[in-house]
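Severity: low
Component: inverse-folding endpoint
Summary: output formatting inconsistent between runs
Steps to reproduce: submit the following structure tokens with default settings.
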């Protein structure tokens, strides 16, 4: 087994994942889904991310996405599949990924040797991913790998994202954090999604947020100012460590040199995408 530098796998994931995530903030994605008749942004997100699992209902999405209110999901699923089939949504999502990456990175980067190299490295890492107990990863792993390198890279980034994400849910359950407690404690680190975005997109009310914060305070994880206590910080660190252990295989398979090179390439792509306005400026933070 390859020995990686401490935190190398997580750093690589953190560099690769954002390029996948650009699509959910992309006007190209909204345009493609609207062309199918899906005009609500929540419906588009649920359909776009869940389509690989088929025409699933709200229960499956609540379980696999974890941090959305079930009532919000049920407003859109399974009804969205009467408007657009999962197959049509997957095709639209891939078209949106193509348009988004070309717009954010430019055709020169999209067709570059660096992109082809990154795609090869990321796909090699996915060879060690496993399907068991990882429903979102497993569903996406059954999809064909696109031929064009930038889309192959986006596909591989999707696989690595969902592989780690499925593992993270297991860690959250082991830590005893419900969906909103997970969000509140993550936001308290300063690295999570800002509360205004969570309340606008996840279906929770301010009263729900405050109640979750109260439960965290009762456990000694959050103080009266909404900051993590030492116990809260330790729990969040253990959560990420637990997730790292469950998600180690793809990066160990790629090896130290491959992980370092993929991280370098991915950071370059993400830097370009962020500079091009890929994400809202107020997406993260405690306010």
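Observed output (run 2 of 3):
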């Amino acid at each position: 087994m390859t020995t990686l530098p401490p935190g190398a796998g997580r750093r690589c994931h953190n560099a690769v994942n954002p390029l996948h995530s650009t699509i959910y903030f992309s006007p190209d994605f909204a345009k493609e889904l609207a062309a199918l008749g899906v005009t609500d942004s929540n419906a588009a997100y649920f359909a776009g991310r869940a389509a690989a699992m088929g025409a699933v209902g709200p229960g499956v999405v609540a379980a696999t996405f974890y941090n959305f209110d079930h009532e919000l999901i049920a407003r859109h699923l399974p009804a969205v599949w009467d408007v657009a089939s999962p197959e049509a949504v997957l095709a639209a999502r891939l078209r949106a990924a193509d348009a988004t990456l070309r717009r954010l990175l430019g055709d020169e980067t999209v067709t570059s040797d660096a992109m082809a190299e990154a795609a090869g490295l990321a796909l090699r890492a996915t060879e060690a991913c496993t399907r068991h107990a990882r429903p979102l990863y497993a569903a996406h792993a059954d999809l064909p790998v696109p031929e064009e390198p930038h889309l192959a890279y986006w596909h591989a980034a999707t696989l690595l994202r969902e592989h780690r994400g499925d593992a993270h849910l297991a860690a959250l359950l082991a830590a005893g954090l419900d969906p909103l407690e997970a969000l509140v404690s993550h936001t308290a680190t300063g690295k999570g999604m800002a509360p205004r975005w969570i309340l606008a997109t996840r279906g929770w009310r301010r009263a729900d947020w405050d109640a979750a914060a109260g439960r965290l305070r009762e456990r000694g994880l959050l103080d009266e100012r909404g900051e993590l206590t030492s116990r809260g910080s330790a729990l969040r660190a253990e959560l990420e460590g637990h997730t790292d252990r469950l998600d180690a295989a793809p990066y160990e398979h790629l090896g130290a040199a491959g992980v370092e090179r993929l991280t370098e390439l991915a950071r370059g792509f993400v830097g370009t995408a962020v500079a091009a306005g890929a994400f809202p400026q107020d997406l993260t933070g405690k306010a």
